[in-house]
Hints:
Elements: E1 2-13, H1 19-28, E2 34-43, H2 48-51, E3 54-61, E4 64-72, E5 78-89, H3 105-113, E6 123-138, E7 143-157, E8 160-175, H4 179-192, E9 195-196, H5 201-209, H6 231-254, H7 261-282, H8 290-322, H9 331-334, H10 340-343, H11 346-357, H12 370-375, H13 377-397, H14 406-425, H15 432-463, H16 472-497
Helix pairs in contact: 4-11, 6-7, 7-8, 8-11, 13-14, 14-15, 15-16
Amino acid sequence: xxxxxxxxxxxxxxxxxxxxxxxxxxISKGGIRRQHLxxxxxxxxxxxxxxxxxxFRLRKEGRQWIQTLKVSTSNPLERLEHNVTLSVVGSAIPHxxxxxxQSHEAGHLLKKRLxxxxxxxxQASYQTDIWRRKALVRxxxxxxxxxxxxxxxxxxxxxxxxxxxxxxxxIELKEGPSSNVLLHAQNIIKRYxxxxxTRSKSEHGYLLARNLQASPPVRAxxxxxxxxxxxxxxxxxxxxxxxxxxLPNQSVLNSEALNPSEYLHQLRVGLRRLKVLFKYLARHNxxxxxxxxxxxxxxxxxxxQYRDSxxxxxxxxxxxLSLGGPEIKLSAIxxxxxxxxITRNAEFQLLLIELMSLGTPPIVEAVEGKDAQENSAxxxxxxxxxxxxxxxxxxxxxxxxxxxxxxxxxxxxxxMKFMRYSLEFFRDYCDKNQxxxxxxxISSTLDHFGLFNDICVSISRIEGLTEGDPTLLFALGWLKxxxxxxxxxxxxxxxxxxxxxxxxxx
Length: 506
């Protein structure tokens, strides 16, 4: 018996000392009994399904076996899900058949992503053994389900069995609008210091099987608005695009990753893209609150401290040592707290929920042809207007570049970043050939401006410390000379940029 649905849920991790309180909470909502769930996750030997955002499993629920296919969507909180109850019962693992899902939307999407996949290509990859306590909670507008999962994921390796512990709480939408889940998520964060984790059991199993600590940092993916129907659908797609970068990177940081630098960088890129998007949303009367904006700024700045420290320790020190200078050792760098303290913070987690609420329609409908273009006219008009205004701001200041203060140069950098991220959002509103040329030019210019900013920040940090540590004078002298050299590169590149033909269509 198949069931056709999409799955909208938020998964949380939480401090171990909150487990008992969460368990009591779910029991108070009717979650008296626990359910034993044993699953086998199926993939190709090289994990093509996992890499394509697909999970395929057989799960034993009591004596019954359920075959499930889940496929990711543009919304990082939603997956297409198709369940088929198999006719076999008992402890013996039944045969799987990927063809049982071919008539469902999830099966269609799987076929699109992995067109040559066949059942014979698949094998059991890892297993889960979970005790689930769940409770259905009626809301004014629908129904949500709490599920507390405790257990483990295990993989049979050549060297023996390896396991990882599962302790997570899921809130899933059963009926009504997705805002129901978001409201309950806010309460869980406030009451239990819970924090969002977008990594599925499937992803954890893959990492365990490959002996990896974490998936690679998630970079921004290209956005296409060609087939999007209406301004709100376009806005939702852009919000989901940003969250698809922010949520997985903060999930890894929450787990106290051993090498957080690139996850931090990609999280900040995702937040920066959101910041650009805020300006477009405001033109369509979509806002986050003042408190949320303050948390956004505070979090972004706090994460920026690590970026500045990375430049000093990872880039500047090797250069200074190669020149025979001393290594810079600033105690402030070592004193920075683990970045998980920033990303797990309840204020930031609540901000993420608020950001999710900006794009609550769960699935963006796509249509072909002329109507899609006409119905997205307002967002296109906004994009062209803001790009034109920003470009003219830059053009007006370039003739005076030689006399600009460092802070004014930093403002130019922010304006160009706004243009670059806008171009990534609205690529489909641009001339294809001019887009490539302009994007290459602005990216090259921003590389120079980024280096200039790193140097200025380093000078600012070191300048006040030279009196107590004269060895820093060598570094300071080198940085000031380098600042002049890079400033010259900035001027040349930005003058070239403003001569470029505009990529966006008027």
